[in-house]
Structures are given as C-alpha cells and as structure tokens.
Design goal:
two-stranded antiparallel ribbon, mainly alpha
Length: 90
C-alpha cells in the first residue's frame, strides 16, 4: 500500500479549497438608464441610486465647465473691448 513520502503542508492542502467560496456576482440593470449595475452601487452612467440622483456624472461636469468657460471668455472679450478705446485715446 503506497504511503506519502512527506507530509503535505497546510498551505498546499488548503490551496485546493481556495476557490470554494468564490461566487458569481449578481448584476442588475439601472432603473433609470438600464446600464449593468452591481447591487448597492450608484450608477456611474446617470448617477442615480434607488431612484435618487446622488452623483454628478462626467458629462454633467464637462457641460458645466464648458458653460463657465464660455461666460469667462465672454467677460474677457467684453473687458478687452472696453479697454481698447481708452488705450487708443491716450
């Protein structure tokens, strides 16, 4: 009858069962935009969680930045337009 030559270590023994507890993650769809979503997570696409808006999305931030940049450029252009005649008169 064969007998093991050496004792099998705990690490080697337990590594066989390392994947026993791994389970497939549940994926649902966002109620607002239908993107795939992990449970108990806010949607990265629309920023909603349980029907309420909780996150500001990347598109919203870029739209807001574009609006503020446009206002800043308009003010700068208006400032330069009013400053040009005074510098020419002197």
């Amino acid at each position: 009858m064969p007998v093991p030559k050496r004792k099998r270590s705990r690490r080697r023994r337990d590594s066989r069962f390392a994947n026993k507890g791994i389970q497939v993650k549940a994926i649902t769809g966002c109620a607002n935009c239908s993107l795939p979503l992990a449970p108990h997570q806010a949607c990265s696409g629309c920023g909603h969680y349980k029907g309420a808006k909780v996150l500001v999305t990347k598109e919203e931030r870029s739209a807001k930045r574009a609006g503020t940049r446009k206002v800043r450029d308009e003010r700068k252009a208006a400032r330069q337009a009013t400053a040009e005649p005074t510098s020419e008169q002197q």
